[in-house]
Amino acid sequence: MTGYTQTRIATWAFSTALALSLAGVLVLARFGSSPVDAHPWLFWFAAFWTFAQMLLIVVALSTFRHALRQGQAERQLQRVARLHRSILDSAGPVMIACDLGGHISLFNPAAERMLGYRASEVLGKLTARDLYPEGEMARVGEQLVASMTGTRIPPDVPWNTAEPLLPFIQYVASFPASRVRGFEMRYRRRDGSTFPTMVYLSAVRSGAGSIEGLVSVAVDITATRRAEHALRESEERYRDLFENSAEMIATLSPRGRYLYVNPAWQTLFGMDSAQFESLIGFESAFPPEAQAEAAALFHKALHGVRVERHPLRLQNSAGETVEVEASLSCRREEAGPVSVRCTFREVTQQNRRERRLRIQLIVSQIIAETTSMDEGLTRVLEALCGTFSCDIAVLWRVDEAQHVVRPRVSWHVRGRSSEDFLRETRAQVFTRGEELPGMVWSLGKPCWIADVRQDPAFIRRTSARLNGFISGWAVPVRVGNQVIAIVECFSRQPTREDPELLATVETVCGSLGQFMARAGQEARVRELDRQKAIILNSVADGIIGVDSAGHIDFVNSAAARMIERTESELIGHSVHEMLHSVAFGHNCDVTCPTRQAIEIGESTAGQDVYYHSDGRSFPVEFSLMPMIEEGAPVGSVLSFRDISQRYALDHMKDEFISTVSHELRTPLTSIRGALGLLSSGLLGAVNEKAANLLRIALANSERLVRLINDILDLERMQSGRAPLAFRRIALEDVARQAIEAMQPVADSGNIHLVSDFESVIVEADADRLLQVMTNLLSNAVKFSPAHSVVRVAIASAPGGALLSVIDQGRGIPSDKLESIFDRFQQVDASDSRQKGGTGLGLAICRSIVQQHGGRIWAEQNRGRGSIFRLFLPERASISASGAEEAVAGHP
Amino acid sequence: MQRRVLIIDDEEDIRAVAAMSLETVAGWEVMMAGSGAAGIARAQEQLPDAILLDVMMPVMDGPTTFRELRANSKTAHIPVILLTAKVQAADQKRFSDLGVAAVMFKPFDPLALAGDIAEVLGWNDK
Description:
By secondary structure, chain A is an alpha+beta fold.
């Protein structure tokens, strides 16, 4: 009975008692004092009623007290229950209790939260199995069973335990409550997702001590798990970093014992971590030559100095030279240094690359800057020695012609004497394959000598030993495939063969080879330039180089001398201005030959007048050659010579000829005069023989006169001293004149002169043309037999006119058709005497015709005779070639 | 009418041949002088109808002699014909610019000399 019920009973009893009392009082009152005797039953009723009343009151009182006590106890209980409840409610962990059948009897708010059920949905409705993922209970059960091997299965496992719960009951039963361990188990939420928890299981026991159910307190360890995982991960990462780092990492105690060495460190020194742990001292891992330095670094770091990227060079376990940057620092706490961390970064490759780049850059700079090859080579040798720690370097030059190598330049470091070695080196000349340079030359590959003092093939070993050189190498300097030089370097340190070094030097020597080749070429170019300058300046003709703008860009000394200006005054100025001295007021118009020549831009020649700087002029003969590069004109070369000498010469020649002809004419005058008079018979008759002789004498004296005339004529024409006077004339007029003059001679020879003229106008010198036609006609008549016809024809031809003189005489053999126009050439030597010709007639004709820009030639007349043709251009032109020929004197 | 001609030439033979030519062919009277100076003197003295004057003479050449003759009032009117072996065009021009009556060339045709002179001077009586 609950306290409440009891209280109600008590209250009911009390109120009943009260009511009865009231009733009694009323009865009494009603019946008054006539009491009992009248009514005996009343007495007993009153006595029963009083008894009942007192019983009820006692019951009420005791029930009330009970109720009070129970109420107290209940309130106490309720307080405890509320406490427990609030504990359960506020607890973080999931608390679930179930009975032996697995039915859930307790489901705290945390469980509600974590699992997503409301308690009302779970209590009495779900079993434990529903809260776990499929197979989880079985799995964990097996685990627990396994962990319990060795303990006896306690007997007090209740018979009505649900099967899934069996292992769990066994588990909690086997341990005293205070010793239950937690285990991991996954829970399943309402939505099917699962999460890991740490479960602490305990038994609900009855008063008798038998197990009635299980309580599990479960803590969600997702976050914990994650944190652990992260930590492990992070630890793993760090570990991974160190273990796999290419950097060599070691941690040491302040006393210098190795605490941790990563695999890279181990590889460097060729020892495993066990061996390191046994070492005493940081430096003892290092090779002997590096120990002092290592110890010093450790000492520094220990005392708080941060060693950053200190370069260190040591031999690794494989004996290779390795370059590292060492960084050391110390981890300190209040008590003092705790550990020293040391990292090495290998920079061998990087250093090599840097060295290679640096030496290439240095050599390129040297090559670009120096002008003297020897100076440049010496500096390169110096750079090589500096970069590769050598003490002396020698460059040998290959002499292909003599099949030897010779030392060319050397460089050595100051300090110790290298005199002996250098002296011996300079005295050497090696053939292909001989000694170090010879070998490199012959193989075309670098060579390394570890110890030159011991190498029998090294001829200079004595002096090398004397000056302390130990190791050396040599590298070929190539241009294309050919070795043109060898660079050898020697060091006073023992060194190991370093293929990478040799490769670097070979690359550098490539640049060196190009430099040497270029210097050689430049020297040749300079030599050629010098020769060219010598030639140009020793030539008597003036040579001027003109650029495409008509400005002077080159002047040889003869040109400067002739113009009487210095080279600097001329260069850059307009050539036309310089030569024609516009400053002096000489106005050149478009007919100026030099100007024309330059503007036309073709090969031309001609004569002109140039001016000295003081305004005096001098006649020149010039020729202009355009310069074409890749099809485009880039300028021209003007060469000229002062022909005032020639003019003077010509003048002298003219004078001479004039004088000579005059001198010849003078006696001839007397001879001809005397013979003429005698021959005429006016001074008396002579006998026949005498008359004949006189006739011969006269004829020949006349011939002599003609000869003198012709020679003079031809000479003057060919030296240009007899300029033609061109006019537009009708050829037929001249031809008619010639025919008229020849008529008497023709008549006397019974030769018929026929004319066949078209009307053609040409630009010509009439007198000269007459001379030509007369000459041709005279020849034609001379060589025609009696009663034959000599025809003179004039026809127009493309560009001019064609005149033909056709005879029916002996004709001219085909091999003489050209040569008859030469001086003193006649078809038959006997002709001269017979026909009274001078042999110059046709030469004179040719000269005249050429000066007209025309052509004269002879042909054979079909059948018999000859045709002399002459073509005259409509406009007389002294073409360049025509003038040239006229000037050069070639008929 | 007898023409009187003075020949001035330093060559004796040419003088002789020219004289003979003029005398034989034309029948003229011929005087001779062997130098420019002698010629001038002779011309002043004899006042010939024409003078045949050589160009190339030492001391006083033809052109100079001609100028002298022209300068002298006595002889200024006498026509002068230059006789020269110099046949170059430049020379010819120079000579004709002097103002001589004609320029004739050596060697001359002795049979034609008189006729040529007469033609040039406009003597048509022979």
